From TrEMBL:
The lineage of its organism: Bacteria, Bacillati, Actinomycetota, Actinomycetes, Kitasatosporales. Catalyzes the phosphorylation of the beta-carboxyl group of aspartic acid with ATP to yield 4-phospho-L-aspartate, which is involved in the branched biosynthetic pathway leading to the biosynthesis of amino acids lysine, threonine, isoleucine and methionine. It comes from Streptomyces spiralis. GO terms for cellular component: cytosol. Belongs to the aspartokinase family. Its EC number is 2.7.2.4. Keywords: Amino-acid biosynthesis, ATP-binding, Diaminopimelate biosynthesis, Kinase, Lysine biosynthesis, Nucleotide-binding, Transferase. This is Aspartokinase. One of its GO terms (biological process) is diaminopimelate biosynthetic process.
Length: 425
């Protein structure tokens, strides 16, 4: 008997019918001889609705109380799903994140998992139960406060439980049939990927692909937990994410030269204008940003003007952190010595990802040629061994993604990509 961890997103349990459909799939896995642990997200748009409600009551809700509010969504889902499974004649117990032993640090709204002690889950499984766990939440190690893990937290919960329970696989059920070569909402001819390495998936996730979040994939890579991304709306095989290629029939699936094209329109760009071009200035800027607990993505520094000895430094960051970053830099303007700040939230990032890029000459040239032919202007460039990313205007992103996707022969012969629930997640 194996142990399988399954995770179901909000679109899969959006209503009573969805919950009953998911319950049947879970029971089927149990009938196949598996111990089953299920991690569930809040129903549909419940989390967004709770956030809106909190902001109507308080423009800046306290982090601790916001976490107490938001975790209610997953608790509703887990209880209803347990009821549906029991109605099918099987035993089930539901657990909050803290009851499941998900221990985190004390950072509210974006806590990180420190440890998982799933003693109660193991007991429930030994008693023949299907264990249902509320995703996205845990309990802080020091104060024992309820915490939430931030965006994609339920995926991370599932992988963390799979690692702690030594599961054979972590199945991530969503509303698309797997990981595609591009967002199927933007590229109708996107192809489903049968297998992708942890490294390529990490690059896609960090570049804007929303099927799996970066923290989830990083956790799976660290503990070597295979992930199977598939749809809860169909019975099709999905995408395997693992360290080694899977076998289909008598041969292994080969790694593609290009894994896919990702895009992200959730970032903004800040340009620090008139920075003295001398050692330590960039360090002062990014120390200020780090002290404000803000993550940055791409960075570029212009060549300084010979007449003034001043330069401009631009970087991208999440739009949600834009105001905080501007305030932090303005507060330290005298210490840094810059002239002014420019803020731009109408940008988008397009990334080409593939482990085969480093051994195939011409990939970079083809990428920029495709963007040029589509009339797309480039503002920033960032590269790694398996990724090329550029920043352009937000309005140019859909056309740019489609142009690059076609240029690298990623289009399928038919409109294969289906988003069953409408979100692609």
């Amino acid at each position: 008997m194996g142990l399988v961890v399954q995770k179901y997103g909000g679109s899969s349990v959006a209503d009573a019918e969805g919950i009953k459909r998911v319950a049947k799939r879970i029971v089927e896995a149990k009938k196949n001889g598996n111990d089953v642990v299920v991690v569930v997200s809040a129903m549909g748009d419940t989390t967004d609705e709770l956030i809106d409600l909190a902001e109507q009551v308080s423009p800046m809700p306290a982090g601790r109380e916001l976490d107490m509010l938001l975790t209610a969504g997953e608790r509703i889902s887990m209880a209803l799903l347990a009821m549906a499974i029991k109605n099918l004649g099987h035993k089930a117990q539901s657990f909050t994140g803290s009851q499941a032993g998900v221990i985190t640090d004390s950072v509210h709204n974006k806590a990180r998992i420190i440890d998982v002690t799933p003693g109660r889950i193991r007991t429930a499984l030994d008693e023949g139960n299907i264990a249902i766990v509320a995703g996205f939440q845990g309990v802080s190690q020091d104060k024992k406060d309820i915490t939430t893990l931030g965006r994609g937290g339920s995926d991370t919960t599932a992988v963390a439980l799979a690692a702690a329970l030594d599961a054979e696989v972590c199945e991530i059920y969503t509303d698309v049939d797997g990981v595609f070569t591009a967002d199927p909402r933007v590229v109708k001819k996107a192809r489903k990927i049968d297998w992708i390495s942890f490294e390529d998936m990490l690059e896609l996730a960090s570049s804007g692909s929303k099927v799996l979040l970066h923290r989830c994939v990083e956790y799976a890579r660290r503990y070597n937990i295979p992930i199977h991304v598939r749809s809860s709306f169909s019975g099709l095989q999905g995408t395997w994410v693992s360290s080694e290629p899977i076998e289909q029939g008598d041969k292994k699936v080969e790694q593609a030269i290009i894994s896919g094209v990702a895009h992200d329109t959730s970032e903004a760009k800040i340009t620090v204008v008139g920075v003295p071009d001398k050692p330590g200035e960039a360090a002062s800027i990014f120390r200020t940003i780090a002290d404000a607990e803000i993550n940055i993505d791409m960075v570029v520094q212009n060549v300084s003007a010979a007449s003034t000895g001043l330069t401009d430094i631009s970087f991208t960051l999440p739009k949600t952190e834009g105001r905080k970053a501007i305030d932090a830099l303005e507060k330290n303007r005298a210490g840094i010595g810059f002239d002014s700040l420019r803020y731009d939230d109408q940008i988008g990032k397009i990334s080409l990802v593939g482990a085969g890029m480093k051994t195939n000459p011409g990939v970079t040239a083809d990428f920029f040629t495709a963007l040029s032919d589509a009339g797309v202007n480039i503002e920033l460039i960032s590269t790694s061994e398996i990724r090329i990313s550029v920043v352009t205007r937000k309005d140019d992103v859909p056309e740019a993604v489609r142009a690059v996707h076609t240029a690298f022969g990623l289009d399928s012969d038919s409109d294969e990509a289906v988003v069953y629930g409408g979100t692609g997640r």
